[in-house]
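ugh finaly. both done.
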Amino acid sequence: MSEHPPPARTETVRLTVSQAVVRFLARQYSERDGQRQRLFAGCLGIFGHGNVAGLGQALLQAEIDEPGALPYVLGRNEQAMVHTAAGYARAKDRLQIWAVSTSVGPGATNMVTGAALATVNRLPVLLLPADTFATRSAGPLLQELERPDSGDVTVNDAFRPVSRYFDRIWRPEQLPGALLGAMRVLTDPAETGAVTLCFPQDVQAEAFDWPEELFAERTWHVGRPLPEQAALARAV
């Protein structure tokens, strides 16, 4: 008989990838000088092909089940939504930010200029553009844009050079690491900028058994930039 007790069972909860994203974001907090607040003020979005049945459904359900956890605000222009999020982050001294969700194709590319502005100015914004089918079970549909000679490249790769952190969630198992990596960059004033997580439309609606600890409340310390020692000496 083994002397070692069996490992403790990890409690899980079954959610779609989109539901997991919304629940995770709603439980992130920022802190500075003892003041703690929700990290995400909400999600700006224009829903259509690629995200309406994924993140759109998840945000609606969250508003019903847990009102105010991650409020949704309808946008009218994708670039304007990113500029709004960047301006809000600046006004909040990077302590509170917005997520931005768009449909696949031109809806996503409209965010690229806003992403560049956020990254150049070290302003944290979380971009959640929809992407083409991970399974490639369907060809380009409606407003999808992809390269016919390279199946693993889509128009969302345009976000790579203008993002401080970029990832595409091909499988549900990749989500926890991507979310935690995104939070690390979003809450580091020296490294922050646009963070882009691309979500293929079929993966958004895929159900998975998530460890419950993924949705525990997390508090991220957002430090103040430290002055140069020479500047501090001159001030003294």
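ok and the 2nd:
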Amino acid sequence: MSKEYDLVVLGGGPGGYAAAIRAAQLDLQVAIVEKDKLGGTCLHYGCIPSKSLLRSAEVFQQTKKASDFGIEGTENVTLNYEKIQLRKNKTIESLHSGIKALMKKGKIDVFNGTGRILGPSIFSPLPGTISIEYADGNENTMLVPKNIIIATGSKPKTIPGLPIDGEHVLDSSNILNLTELPTSIVIIGAGVIGIEWASMLADFGVSVTVVEYAPQILPSEDKAVANKLEQELQKKGITFIKNVQIKPDTLSINKEIAIEYYDGSNNSNKTLHTEKILMAVGREANTLNIGLENTDIIVNNGAIETNEFYQTKESHIYAIGDCIGGMQLAHVATHEGLIAVEHMAEQSPLPIKYNHVPRCIYSSPEVASVGLTEEQARAEGINVKVGQFPFQANGKALVYGETVGFVKIIADEKTKDLVGVHMVGPHVTNMISEAGLAMVLDATPWEITQSIHPHPSLSEVIGEAALAVDGIQIHG
């Protein structure tokens, strides 16, 4: 059986289903091929479930501190992890149902199977016919599209010699399925995923140790922000071991797990003992076994090469999201999908300026940023002016009882333009959009100060940090 479409999307994650919806809005006949569930890793194994757990951890800690707000009787509050998991699953199902409804609304056909790209055949003189294989063994379906978007996402990376067994050594997907919390855990990797899980598990009462190869946690973030976050996470009891290398061949699993790491600072091996290990060393593109070998598409270091509109070397085949490398963020994949569709539909979209994309870390406290760090700016030869303002001097932060952190604004001393904005503190993942818009509009700190921030609000800290670039902050 074969069917013809204007567009077939391989992968139903945030980038894939958003691209399909936009294509349907432009009156294209669209199909999605998804081997698992619509919503992809983000909805089912990443962004949404982990943020649900983080919210439960936040409420748990807030409730324990309720007496600070004059609310008595909550000091001995207990944790019911089974209910926390049920709430997480309910949230996922609600969003999953919403996406399925959007597919029906857009008259988008959804095929639940594994799609592979075929070379030129009786179906098409160009590579691009999609063969769908079904888990139940039913006969393959052939889809013949005019255009394809590859949106196959990514999977957790592993360290050679340290396999994921789902019981003792976990990755960011199967740790979501724990039915009870461990007493202790070693997290390998202090990037976004590792830090979010470290913060969450520590708030749940787990003994957490984080091992990082680099000398700084969150190596891609501003040093001042990373250092402040590390200080606050240490107050939760988290131990950080940096600038060291795990030795996979030393893994031993008995009543507890033991594994060694090499500490180059004193040329010695040391041993960690723990109940669980979480591997959080990044993600790698899903580009194998999807038929790329049947095309002229170029794959570099495991990621698909595209132009600024996400066309591959096969001009009718586009690729977006994690499978092309770059910024592996759901909101980036979504925007890339919209641009790809609008380009194939000759709508003249603007390319993404990746320096304008906000980055968020949902630890406690939160981290959010956009643009260059101070270190990156100076490395590029930019003479910078920096303004920084603490939440401790903000009325709303005091009312909330969350005064840790600051907003840091970096400007080019010569042009006055914004170079980067970096935040650590309460609800900064909601506040970063203002900075993102300022970057898009090529604003200066002075222009930010001309936007009147309501009082009392956490956003006032952004205005004060913008004033601080010229040393004229009001409350500092």
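summary for the 2nd one i guess: Residues 450 and 463 are 8 Å apart (CA to CA).
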